[in-house]
Specification:
The chain is of the alpha/beta class. It is 39% helix and 19% strand. Helix 3 packs across helix 5. It is globular.
Amino acid sequence: MSRLPAFNPLLPETLSLMAPGQHILVETSMSVFKKILVPIDGSNTSNKALDHALRIAQESKAQVRLVHCIDELSLLNSHEYAGELFQLARTHGEQILQEGLTTAKAVGVAADSRLIDRVGQRLGESVADAAGDFAADLVVIGTHGRRGIGRVLLGSGSEQIMRMSPVPVLMVRGVD
């Protein structure tokens, strides 16, 4: 007695087992995101973005990389380089990253971190480079959603990231 192969709509050789005009809905689950990059700065807004990224990572079993960027140009004061101020910024950045890693570990998400401190590089460039280095599928960032004069005066780091990112960007609206 010969056995008929089981129907599998993903295998063309089993399509002959379907009756003419019969349609089959095939539900497949596929994780789109395997590597998620999350720039964090310790603010409530970036923490909210981190929470969203970790939920996505849990659902898709993705790996997360946290990055913190130091803007060295903002640390220049009266044309003098403040080495002590730069070291404080690095220490604070490492602390922010460690807190993020602790949060990721608490929810069972594989994560690592990088401190980025490239002289003269804009935030958008730094994050875009980090996304490429990590082979990220997604960048998740917090945004304050500033408009009008606030946006003109303060700029929009999230907009820079969105414009320069080599991968999709999920912007999470902040609370502060």
